[in-house]
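We close this part of the discussion by returning to an individual protein. In the encoding step, the backbone of a single protein was reduced to a row of integers, each denoting a local shape. The sequence in question and its structure tokens are set out directly beneath this paragraph.
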Amino acid sequence: MPNTNPLVLTIDLGTQSIRSIIVDKTGNIIYKVNHVYPKAYYSLNPGWAEQKPEVYWNGLCETTNRIKAEAQDVWKNIIAVTITTIRDTCLCVNKDGKPLRDFIVWLDKRTSDAKKPFPFINSLLYSITGMKDTAQLQRKVSACNWIMQNEPDVWERTHKFIFVSGYLTYMLTGRLADSVANMIGHIPFSSKTRTWMTKIDPNRAIFDVENEKLTELLEPGKTIGYITEAAAAVSGITKGLPLITTGSDIGCATLGNSCLKPDSAAINLGTTATIQFTINKYMEPLPFIPAYPAVLDGHYNPEVQVYRGYWLISWFKKEFAAKEVERAKEIGVSPEAILEKMLKQIPAGCDGLIFQPYFTPGVIMPKSKGAIVGFSDNHTRAHLYRAIIEGINFALMDGLYTMQKQGKGRVKIEKLFLGGGGSQSNTICQITANMFGLPAYRIQTYEATGLGSSMVAFAATGVYADIFEAAKKMVHIKDEFLPNPKERETYKFLFEEIFSKIFDKMLPLYKTYEERADVTSL
């Protein structure tokens, strides 16, 4: 008999936890199981972040077995499996697919010395385009280069250099391959051609992984393999189910929020805050920075990141809000509930306090540091908290305006879709709408990443004709936040006249500070 209630099992691997969800064809998540790792990562040295492969694999199996036990009545209706994972989390494996070391997680801050000079032509090109510092920073922070330099025996034995998405694919299907839309990180991948870089690509010198160590790639929406008997035995997933290629967590979230055209943008208010949209013609989001390959075949996801993002909220709670955290424990509420009240007490613009959230140097800003401008004696912890929220949004606004300029008329964002931990706050959502001057929406679930990944499978298996039809049937707006015109004017003035000028004014000081190693090492 035909399956009248087809379901998709989606596995969503995050930095701190992994979850399995079962999604129906209308976009409802009918079962969800989450497993929090004992530790998000471990550090052998300051700034390092590694994770054992078995933590991810065992976590997957724990969630899939639990969800199977809960969903026995519908388990037979599952027609496909998908996985979506964090980005730039890499592993070396041998010819048998066995890990040769632990994962280097995307949060890792180790660097190689990168003393070997770039080839003359590459160095000249980087200098002409003003990207030499950026290229050198990219080379230093690329995990592949660190392994080559510091663990040459591991690199020599490496058969494939893969991401966590490729590792889970191998564990489930026995095939060493991955999705094009997962190739986001410090690897020699050309987003424009959606293939590995050729040897003559100017950027290949930054992370020159040997061709034979690069894994096979498939476009999203393809059957990459089938659940093996061995995987079924330990995961509980039905043997023979197809594993459909999708993409990274942020890319799937953009899809899950139905941002399929350059008139809508998905904002992720998570550990790393991002703003991303989808376009069907390649364009760089920032000069010389690639757009990511979208989960939608033939499309791209220009993106701007604020690297520390809502990590700054954890930083604020730890360093400045001990009183509020303790009070939350006493009355049995979350610290965020008390912080929400603090937000509402402070006016737009925080009485002149402006926060620049560039705590971590990035590709475009290799010399950046954070800054707080405008302190006066009337400012409180509440002002600082709201300034952090506004500062993250100012940085995302800056990114959006730059991307729209890069789009040369092809990009006109008219609405925002909000996700990530910060989006659970109504006040933060309203502040975001006011700052951008655009309507902001939340969909029916916080699991936009898993929803987007499952949408690909429903289209790939013929339940829907394509991703666009899947989006119409599966994505439903739950909440709307319309901008306040008066507050929008306040934020427009603060962005144009103050925030957008802070970094350039501070940059000479940042550079001077960086040159004094005896000071910066204190």
About this structure: Residues 180 and 219 are 5 Å apart (CA to CA). The longest strand covers residues 17-24.
